């Protein structure tokens, strides 16, 4: 059982992610401690990448995160212009879809709310299609490989890097590590947390916390790292994660708290 005398919840993610979950936890009286363990940086190119000169670049574009959209916003104008010629876009999650539309990419035809299985189901038949998959260096090429096995021609490119946070000072390591509930957004965020806490503190705490994971890969990573109490929503969406937190944690006891 979660220690009901301790109202702290650590949200381990990018600094600007899981905003809905943070808002819900704070409104429910939990003291939300943001632990930004990763950041992203675009992979810079001296010119327009050669694959953007193909016509069409692709007939389907798969966007799995807002970080891809952030990267495109910082890309040269001619690069963005070439990508806008793609007829159809599949966005993972409503926040990614909103970011695309705000960034001027209006051909968002499908919004998938789940992990890779739900994404493949949403895309449908892919044989013979040219699919553009832009991702981070930490994401791996598994999705591209699965699409190729189904007969797609996939352009798989790394367009941003995941950068881990710097190690914290001793007092901060102890304070963060002692938080009884962790909400972890991704395997990369969990790896970043190990760097923030240091191996000794991370290994000492991971087996005692109540951990809520976003998605199958994050769940596997948490268990491999030594977590004993891992809970995850059936679908890899922030909405489902927020619903799980509501059901599992409810309102915190005591005075209402503010997000830090």
Structure characterization notes:
This protein has 260 residues and is an alpha/beta fold. The protein folds into 2 domains: 115 residues, Rossmann fold (3-Layer(aba) Sandwich); 122 residues, Rossmann fold. Helix content is 38%, strand content 23%. The protein contains 11 helices and 11 strands. The strands form 2 sheets. It has a 6-stranded mixed beta sheet with strand order 3-8-7-4-5-6, with helices on both faces. A 5-stranded parallel beta sheet has the order 2-1-9-10-11, with helices on both faces. α8 packs across α9. The two termini are 25 Å apart.
Q: Summary?
A:
Helices cover 38% and strands 23% of the residues. It has 260 residues and is of the alpha/beta class.
Write the layout of secondary structure elements.
Elements: E1 8-13, H1 19-27, E2 31-36, E3 38-42, E4 60-63, H2 66-73, H3 77-83, E5 89-92, H4 94-102, E6 108-112, H5 116-123, E7 130-136, H6 142-149, E8 153-164, H7 170-177, E9 181-184, H8 187-197, H9 199-206, E10 210-213, H10 216-225, E11 229-231, H11 238-249
Parallel strand pairs: 1-2, 1-9, 4-5, 4-7, 5-6, 7-8, 9-10, 10-11
Antiparallel strand pairs: 3-8
């Amino acid at each position: 059982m979660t220690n009901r005398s301790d109202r702290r919840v650590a949200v381990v993610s990018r600094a600007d992610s899981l905003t809905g979950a943070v808002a819900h936890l704070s409104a429910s009286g939990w003291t939300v401690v943001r632990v930004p363990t990763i950041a992203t940086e675009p992979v810079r190119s001296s010119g327009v990448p050669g694959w953007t000169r193909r016509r069409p670049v692709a007939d389907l574009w798969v966007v799995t995160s807002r970080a891809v959209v952030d990267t495109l916003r910082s890309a040269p104008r001619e690069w963005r212009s070439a990508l806008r010629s793609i007829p159809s876009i599949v966005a993972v999650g409503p926040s990614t879809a909103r970011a695309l539309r705000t960034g001027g990419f209006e051909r968002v035809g499908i919004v998938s709310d789940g992990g890779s299985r739900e994404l493949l189901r949403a895309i449908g038949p892919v044989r013979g299609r040219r699919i553009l998959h832009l991702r981070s260096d930490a994401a791996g090429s598994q999705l591209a490989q699965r699409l190729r096995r189904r007969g797609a021609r996939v352009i798989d490119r790394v367009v941003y890097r995941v950068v881990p946070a710097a190690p914290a000072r001793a007092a901060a390591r102890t304070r963060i590590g002692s938080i009884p509930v962790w909400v972890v957004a991704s395997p990369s965020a969990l790896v970043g947390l190990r760097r923030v806490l240091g191996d000794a503190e991370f290994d000492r705490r991971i087996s005692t916390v109540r951990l809520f994971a976003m998605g199958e890969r994050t769940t596997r990573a948490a268990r491999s790292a030594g977590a004993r109490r891992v809970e995850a929503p059936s679908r890899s969406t922030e909405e489902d994660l927020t619903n799980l937190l509501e059901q599992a944690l409810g309102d915190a006891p005591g005075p209402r708290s503010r997000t830090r």
